[in-house]
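User: Please fill in residues for this 332-position structure.
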């Protein structure tokens, strides 16, 4: 796949993402692991698929696994498989995602959420291509390229002891950093046009292009949710405009002035308080998630869901809710 084909696949490949796509072109033909860094919504999965499609493995499968969406007690079984009788409920042998991706690429999204025990198993696969199923007695060889992605600062996690340093050195052989949308405003007009055309098809509306004033408003916004948020805003603008126009001002106002979004923007603000007044971190996180669920009536996914309001991936939010024992149904 040449640069022209890549440009047809990824909006911004010839402008704001040109440096990224240059790195994709360099690393794709090799088999080294790739680690993609980027804020939520910047398009990490698209880049992972571009690497796979340009590689010698393009005829093989590419499988995406969200490490943050799998309960810690199940992630070994999901990734590496299990033998029949390995644990309660293992009524038959199951091939894990590594075996299913044999001959292709395994895309490990939200790598920073991977538990320590699974990190050890992953390191072995990266080192020599061998794995053992849970409850297995014999190693199994797999031919898989690993592309991983994270929005977290893994180097800081290594320093804090929450991410293995040996895995960090192995997985970060070739890093690719995706810029946030606020740093690639040159792409906003093209992206808005792309999403407007998509929205017209999805919602059965007349195709309407963004006006110069629409583009001005879109470029002035900071896009904390990046490209994913832009897509949601254009969808909302298309629905509100009903095929006559894109109601960008109205749609964008809903995004930038949403009360939960405002609280999310302020979540990192530091207040001058005595340490005795500081609540435990899990309590603060729990309260924040519950506030979002309350405001969205228990809805998690979609542009008006709690995940969008909190600017996190829905799978990541569900994993955190499970960890904190939050039941979304009580907010419906």
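Assistant: Residues filled in for all 332 positions:
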């Amino acid at each position: 796949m040449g640069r022209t084909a890549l440009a047809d696949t990824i909006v911004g490949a010839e402008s704001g993402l040109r440096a990224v796509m240059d790195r994709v072109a360099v690393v794709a033909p090799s088999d080294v692991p790739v680690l993609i860094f980027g804020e939520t919504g910047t398009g990490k999965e698209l880049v992972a698929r571009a690497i796979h499609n340009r590689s010698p493995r393009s005829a093989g499968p590419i499988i995406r696994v969200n490490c943050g969406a799998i309960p810690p007690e199940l992630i070994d079984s999901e990734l590496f498989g299990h033998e029949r009788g390995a644990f309660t409920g293992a009524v038959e042998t199951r091939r894990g995602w590594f075996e299913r991706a044999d001959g292709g690429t395994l895309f490990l999204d939200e790598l920073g959420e991977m538990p320590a025990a699974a990190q050890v198993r992953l390191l072995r696969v990266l080192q020599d291509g061998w794995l053992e199923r849970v409850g297995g007695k014999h190693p199994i060889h797999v031919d898989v390229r690993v592309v991983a992605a994270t929005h977290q600062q893994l180097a800081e996690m290594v320093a804090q002891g929450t991410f293995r340093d040996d895995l960090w050195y192995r997985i970060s052989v070739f890093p690719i950093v995706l810029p946030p949308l606020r740093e690639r405003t040159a792409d906003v007009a093209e992206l808005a046009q792309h999403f407007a055309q998509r929205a017209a098809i999805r919602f059965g509306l007349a195709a309407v292009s963004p006006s110069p004033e629409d583009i001005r408003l879109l470029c002035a916004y900071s896009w904390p949710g990046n490209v994913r948020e832009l897509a949601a805003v254009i969808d909302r603008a298309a629905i509100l405009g009903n095929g006559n126009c894109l109601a960008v001002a109205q749609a964008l106002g809903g995004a930038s002035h949403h009360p939960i979004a405002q609280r999310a923007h302020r979540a990192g603000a530091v207040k001058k308080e005595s340490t005795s007044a500081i609540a435990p971190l899990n309590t603060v996180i729990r309260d924040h998630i519950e506030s979002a669920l309350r405001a969205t009536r228990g809805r998690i996914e979609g542009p008006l869901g709690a995940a969008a309001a909190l600017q996190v991936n829905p799978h990541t939010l569900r994993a955190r809710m499970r960890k904190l024992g939050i039941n979304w149904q009580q907010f419906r």
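For context: Residues 1-8, 257-276 have pLDDT under 50 and may be disordered.
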